[in-house]
Design goal:
The structure is a single chain. Strand 1 (48-52), helix 2 and strand 2 (71-76) form a beta-alpha-beta unit. This protein has one domain (18-271): Rossmann fold. It has a seven-stranded mixed β-sheet, with helices on both faces. Helix content is 40%, strand content 18%. It is an alpha/beta fold and 273 residues long. The radius of gyration is 17 Å and the shape is globular.
């Protein structure tokens, strides 16, 4: 499947906000493993680095905290997300920009990453070509990508994007990727994949499908589960945070044990040719 399931403009990104909760590369943070793998790839990097589709700045701020020597930049298409990120920037330079037109010169950046963005855009090839343009030759690119078209996953079983469309409506996932589709696309855009790791095996696939199916009955929400639980106060908030930590820790362990087994999310390391 190469055509978008819906136009990106059909999803209201100003009404949604992701990535406001604090993040560390620890098992009890829902995106902790994603951050851990990114920091691994950033190990030998120096200079200017960019988070494309940074949302409210969670990952960019975490990278700046862990690697204060780097000049960290973040960009997003959502004005409300950039406003939230800029209210407490934590040393990060946040800018309003689309992934298809990055406000940087050719070869200006040393490293770029994208978390959970490519599935939202009308033309993922255009985004990847733009990443390749702003990277120096030999620069690194790290992408975290839902693989809802990956063989032998629950996403394929339920027919994500065809029979089951909850993530199109409530998550804006208009592109369905497999690892094979991404590798071919990235290579053609000058960003060949040199390493692949995996997450979202059984536990998170079940919970992900269950959560978005529940949203079909309940109606839309304004942010991620982690963001909502971090903001909720009282007993309900404490229970939500405890449940989130338990799920995150279990999923981290599952992904580490099965990191060589294809799952529902790919962590791809690429190099700019």
């Amino acid at each position: 499947m190469n055509e978008p399931l819906a136009p990106a403009s059909s999803f209201d990104y100003e009404a949604k906000r992701w990535g406001a909760a604090p993040l560390r590369p620890k098992p009890w943070f829902m995106n902790g493993l994603k951050l851990r793998y990114l920091l691994d790839d950033l190990g030998g990097v120096r200079g200017r680095v960019l988070d494309v589709g940074c949302g409210a700045g969670q990952v960019a701020k975490a990278v700046k905290r862990e690697r204060p020597d780097l000049e960290v930049l973040g960009c997003d298409v959502s004005r409300s997300a950039i406003a939230a990120a800029s209210a407490s920037p934590g040393g990060v330079d946040f800018r309003l920009a689309t992934a298809e037109r990055l406000p940087f010169a050719d070869g200006e950046l040393d490293f770029v990453w994208i978390f959970d963005v490519l599935e939202h855009v009308d033309s993922p090839e255009q985004v990847l070509r733009e990443v390749a343009r702003v990277l120096k030759p030999g620069g690194g690119f790290h992408i975290v990508l839902p693989l809802e078209g990956q063989p032998r996953t629950l996403y394929r079983l339920v027919g994500t994007g065809t029979r089951w469309t909850a993530k199109v409506r409530h998550g804006g996932h208009i592109q369905i990727f497999s690892a094979e589709r991404f590798r071919e696309m990235a290579g053609a855009c000058g960003l060949p994949v040199v390493r692949t790791r995996w997450s979202y095996h059984a536990l998170l696939q079940v919970l992900d499908i269950g959560y978005f199916s529940w949203l079909d009955r309940r109606g839309p929400v304004s942010g991620s589960v982690e963001d909502m639980s971090s903001q909720r106060r009282g007993v309900v908030g404490a229970v939500m945070r405890a449940a989130s930590r338990a799920v995150a820790t279990t999923a981290w362990g599952e992904a580490r044990v099965l990191r060589g087994v294809p799952g529902g999310c790919g962590h791809f390391t690429c190099l700019r040719r």
